[in-house]
């Protein structure tokens, strides 16, 4: 799918970072963002690959200034956005910001319709590396044209800026956004609930042909450790997003997260699947009652990641024939548990694995 796709090298693997929305909504300020950036470093998340610190809706003052420029809310960001971005850059991280393509943001603050080039220029002056452009208050507007304008505006700044398209998958952006943006939402906003994660996951099943380096399907930000998700549900969510080659944008409070949550978000062999340089999105090869089998082909020849998702309330043993994942059934294959970071043996013809309720087992498979 490389023809007619972005290939500017800004997102060769799916972006990893943090966004303020899922946990904090509009209750954001300079102190929260800086503390989060510092936590991203001290927790090991930066070294695991997380780079972008993104502030979502709620950062701007209720009015533009007399020149028509965005103004950061002075009560939340008294030193301005440039100072914040500079400090984040000093930590070895990148800075992202939010706007909306329509007449107002989703929280009824100033948005960017008619100001695209002015706002892009301002973002570049502030040192922004990533812009999320939402789709509220856009009645009668065409997303292809408006997001193409945003792409031109960002390009005109001559600063490398990742464009995150957020029109919630309404106009099948996977069919057109790959020449415009680096990632595009494929579903409505995620909620910190198991049912929301599963519903969004199902919407990704046929989208694997459309993703690749610099152009990614985005099933929305992570809800790991939010709401009432159990640890197993959080692990399953994280693992399936990794097999989907989805952007891994954490949405929890990094300052107070437990060691268990940190270990989920930084699990090295799961992150390695997410960031596999081949950039091939995983696909579902089986849906059988409560059991899904998802497979992602990795760049190294003869290597696959398999996610065995148990949606249901009961433990299940699952058998996967090698033919199901495109392997020669006569081959000897080595099986590794990527959560446990341990080899679990060799097999032929089929893989047998145990699953627990509401969880995902993730296996690395390599031909001998």
Topology (SSEs and partners):
Layout (H helix, E strand, L loop, with lengths): L15 E4 L1 H4 L5 H13 L2 H4 L3 E3 L25 H11 L3 E7 L15 H11 L3 E5 L8 H14 L5 E4 L17 E3 L8 H10 L12 E3 L12 H13 L4 E3 L8 H7 L2 H7 L8 E6 L2 E7 L5 E8 L5 E6 L11 E5 L4 E6 L2 E6 L3 E9 L1
Parallel strand pairs: 1-2, 1-8, 2-3, 3-4, 4-5, 5-6, 6-7
Antiparallel strand pairs: 9-10, 10-11, 11-16, 12-15, 13-14, 13-16
Helix pairs in contact: 5-6, 8-9, 8-10
Can you describe this structure?
This protein is an alpha/beta fold and 368 residues long. The protein has two domains: 259 residues, Aldolase class I (TIM Barrel), CATH 3.20.20; 85 residues, Golgi alpha-mannosidase II (Immunoglobulin-like). The protein is 26% helix and 23% strand. The strands form three sheets. The chain has an eight-stranded parallel sheet with strand order 7-6-5-4-3-2-1-8. Helix 6 links the parallel strand 4 and strand 5. The relative contact order is 0.12.
Protein traits:
TIM Barrel; alpha/beta; globular; eight-stranded parallel beta sheet; 368 residues
Offer a concise description of the structure.
The protein is of the alpha/beta class and 368 residues long.
Rounded to the nearest angstrom, the radius of gyration is 21 Å
Intertermini distance = 30 Å
How are the strands of the biggest sheet laid out side by side? Answer: 7-6-5-4-3-2-1-8
What is the total tally of β strands? 16
- Second-tier CATH architecture of the largest domain: Alpha-Beta Barrel
Q: Quick one: CATH superfamily of the largest domain?
A: Aldolase class I
CATH class annotation of the largest domain = Alpha Beta
């Amino acid at each position: 799918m490389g023809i007619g796709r972005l290939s500017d090298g800004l997102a060769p693997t799916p972006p990893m970072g943090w966004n303020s929305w899922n946990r904090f909504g509009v209750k954001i300020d300079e102190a929260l963002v800086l503390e989060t950036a510092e936590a991203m470093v001290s927790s090991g998340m930066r070294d695991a690959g997380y780079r972008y610190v993104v502030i979502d809706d709620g950062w701007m003052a209720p009015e533009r200034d007399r020149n028509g420029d965005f103004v950061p809310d002075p009560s939340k960001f008294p030193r301005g956005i440039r100072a914040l971005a500079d400090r984040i850059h000093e930590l070895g991280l990148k800075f992202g910001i939010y706007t909306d393509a329509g007449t107002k943001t989703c929280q009824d603050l100033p948005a960017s319709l008619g100001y695209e080039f002015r706002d892009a220029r301002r973002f570049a002056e502030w040192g922004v590396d990533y812009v999320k452009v939402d789709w509220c208050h856009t009645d009668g507007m065409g997303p292809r044209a408006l997001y193409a304008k945003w792409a031109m505006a960002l390009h005109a700044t001559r600063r490398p800026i990742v464009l995150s398209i957020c029109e919630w998958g309404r106009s099948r952006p996977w069919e057109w956004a790959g020449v415009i943006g680096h990632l595009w939402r494929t579903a409505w906003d995620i909620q910190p609930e198991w049912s929301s994660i599963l519903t969004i996951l199902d919407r990704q099943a046929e989208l694997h042909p459309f993703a690749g380096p610099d152009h990614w399907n985005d099933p929305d930000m992570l809800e790991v450790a939010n709401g009432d998700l159990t640890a197993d549900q959080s692990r399953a969510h994280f693992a399936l997003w990794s097999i989907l080659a989805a952007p891994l944008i954490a949405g929890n409070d990094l300052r107070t997260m437990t060691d268990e949550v940190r270990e989920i978000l930084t699990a090295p062999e799961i992150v390695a699947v997410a960031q596999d340089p081949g950039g091939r999105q995983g696909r579902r090869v089986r849906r059988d009652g409560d059991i899904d089998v998802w497979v992602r082909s990795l760049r190294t020849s003869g290597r696959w990641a398999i996610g065995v998702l148990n949606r249901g309330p009961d433990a299940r043993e699952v058998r996967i024939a090698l033919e199901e994942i495109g392997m020669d059934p006569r081959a000897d294959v080595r099986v590794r548990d990527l959560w446990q970071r341990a080899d679990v043996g060799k097999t032929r013809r089929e893989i047998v694995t145990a699953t627990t309720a509401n969880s995902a087992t993730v296996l690395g498979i390599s031909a001998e």
